[in-house]
Specification:
Rossmann fold, 309 residues, 5-stranded parallel beta sheet, 17% strand, 7-stranded parallel beta sheet, alpha/beta
Amino acid sequence: MRIAFCCTDTRPEPWLEGLRAALPQADVSLWQPGAPPADIAVVWAPPQQFLDEQPQLKALFNIGAGVDALLRLRIPEHTAIVRLEDAGMAAQMAEYVCHALIRHFREFDVLEQAAQRGEWAYRKPRRRQDFAVGVLGLGVLGLRVAQALRQFEFSVHGWSQSPKPEAAAWGLEAHAGWAALPTFLSQCQALVCLLPLTDQTRDILSRDTLQQLRPGAYVVNVARGAHVVDEDLLALLDSGHLAGATLDVFRTEPLPPEHPFWRHPRITLTPHTSARTLRDDSIEQIVGKIAAWQRGEAISGVVDRERGY
């Protein structure tokens, strides 16, 4: 079996060493233009040239959960696309979201500002029953985030495009389908976006949807920057309808220095770091999927191109 490795923005040597150690029977090599045909590929943001030169590929294993960039390329129909489902990212994502929401809920940001001014300032405690959190997207990462929030005894609502029967076991009030979205939003004092980016979810965090949140709601986006209509978010922050936002992803990355998000007092920014791919965990998951795929077994994470995830 020949495996081609083609990943931009990452140092290839550790990945190649890990894959070769885990798959000693395979020929694992870094793709270069003109390379011989491979059976499968491990990729992240490959160029179109790679796919054009490797039309015989049976499967692409993506070293991340998001495949929106990959689906913009021309990929033969016979080539399966397989994404990572966790690989160490779920725990990181849960940490990030819980930190962002607890920081806002407990007003630690306000206390930090007071401390910088040398002020001994108390804040009246908020009631959890008045702070329902909504999680947009109930995949592997969304369910893990919802579970973590439930551990802090927040009321958690979830929304997904299709029903998620397992959500009840996590103590969630689950909503499914576009018709249920307004009801879901109207119950949320905080909103966390963990949706895949598809044609249906692009620009979903717009004025029309965000103004359906409870007044003074807080927004956390850890999915994709194109979910947010930047101008609408800024307008609702300035009007006071939204209390603030924590943003980890942006339409253009790195975020341009002139972008108003940098200077807005109610926005907290991080550089797309809410959940980074862990190499060893990712290799273990990819190798397990390749082994099962070779045995002819069904594997999880196969992308439905119609749905976009």
